[in-house]
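To assess whether the prediction recovers the assembly geometry, we first specified each molecular entity separately, as shown.
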Amino acid sequence: MSSSTGLEPLDVTRIKADFPILGRPVDGHDLVFLDSAASSQRPTAVLEAMDRYYSEDHANVHRAAYALAERATNAMESSRRRVAAFVGAPSADEIVFTKNATESLNLVARSWGVANLRPGDVVVLTLLEHHANIVPWLQLAESHDVELRWIGLTPDGRLDLDDVDDLLRGASLLSVTGMSNVLGTVPPVAELAERAHAAGALVCVDACQSTPHTTTRVEDLGADFLVFSGHKLCGPTGVGVLWARSELLESMPPFLGGGGMILDVRTDGFTPAAVPHKFEAGTPPIAEIVGLAAAIDYLEAVGIDRITAHERSLTEYALESLPDRLGDDLTIFGPTDTEHRGGIVSFAFADIHPHDLSQVLDSHGVCVRPGHHCAKPLMRFLGVGATARASWYLYNDTSDIDALADALADAREFFAV
Amino acid sequence: MVNDHRTGRDDMSGLEDLYREIILDHYRSPRNRGELPVPPATRAEGFNPLCGDEIVVYLQLDDPAKGDDAVIDDIRIGGQGCSISQSSASMMSAAVKGHTVADARHLTRAFKAMMSIHEGELGGDGSESELDGDAAEVGEIALGDLDALKGVVKFPVRIKCATLGWNTLLQGFDDSGS
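The predicted structure of the complete assembly is given in tokenized form:
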């Protein structure tokens, strides 16, 4: 594939070979994995890093004086520095490890939110959000009478920015996705953050879908909080990240209580540990944290900018070739140009329910996701109960999109009267 | 049973078991589709949180006070969803209409058993075998087209689709006090 960006195109054949699962046939078919928005696959380098950690370095962290425990602690803390550099955080102490992005968002809501929001205070969300960036705030609305306001959408699934300043007036927080997990829409986060800050609001970015695919710099985004998960960027499940500015983390009360997050415990109270350990109660997912750092190493060795360019050209190919092949039976939701969207395409096809569609595609080895994608407010806006969603990553190429088109054409034939 | 253009393809053979022609017929032409005035009818809503499917069951019993002896005078199905959930609800409505709540509960148990769902508190009555073999009736209710849904059991993810309408029916019985 040619590149107009001046970046060397990815050698997808070589990249595919790094991912053992992609070489395994499924029911006699080559695996056509188009569901990386739900969870990506892992390269051998990540699997080996975790295996090596368990084989050579494992003990509990931050507790013991013996050399093995020190190696484990070093592995975890060097991973923390790796993650900090990956998102451009000024200090590794601003990186809090959680079990997933959902927990990170709950941490922000329960710790920062409960400590700072009073009845009538306003949190601004968008109709693009995943339930993970909705439900914790709905819980605060219920328990603390916090008011939620919603930034709406244009018909093609971009944020409607017309009344954003009105919505932000008097708000305490804007929490916004870095990329819609349904439409692929990439909101203008930096611009929104500027307007939110001008209105006196803090900015939380749900970067689950953006961090794996585009260079992330917390300062450039204007974020005050940023969350993402490991398993969507070729890392393991079970580890998520919260980054927040250090003065926010310092001022926030602990979220979960237990071992590892304290300086002192008495019968009448406790003193929390310093940031970030204050937010990391219990034994952390050490191997997963090591695996996350290995995933970041892998992605950066390939080059995040090259991955962005590769996915953009795949998205262009899909937006052109799928309607060409399938005609009016295909409805693609969301922005029509790659300027405003990443490599996630939700669609409706030939009046075939997404669940049925996905079943037929599966018989061709093509993995797409049917459903509401944990974004029911967005589904209501689109006027559908569910969509089928295809999403790609560095290990996909145009042959995967062609396979999707072939399978869709067969599904149409299969369900034809 | 299946259209010619859907046969003779190895990679589709599993799918042919799932999407029997009678299922697609119920999907395209659902029976008892619509609403009933509430009250006197009752309305129950069921959701499949996995896929966003939604089924609404409207029930008109002759006399809810009769409990399990009440007769289902009328039933209507609303909502939207995949071919399996919609056709299963359609077949269910055709099967239970005009029968007693007791018979409908019996059929529900047997249907769930066909879907490999064995509920301890309901089981122990040998219902698993009732839809097997040549059994054409469960209790007083003719099986009819429901047998075509047998293939769903090979696709575990879809079992929830097939049982959505049935669980909503049970909820409707509870809501109507029968």
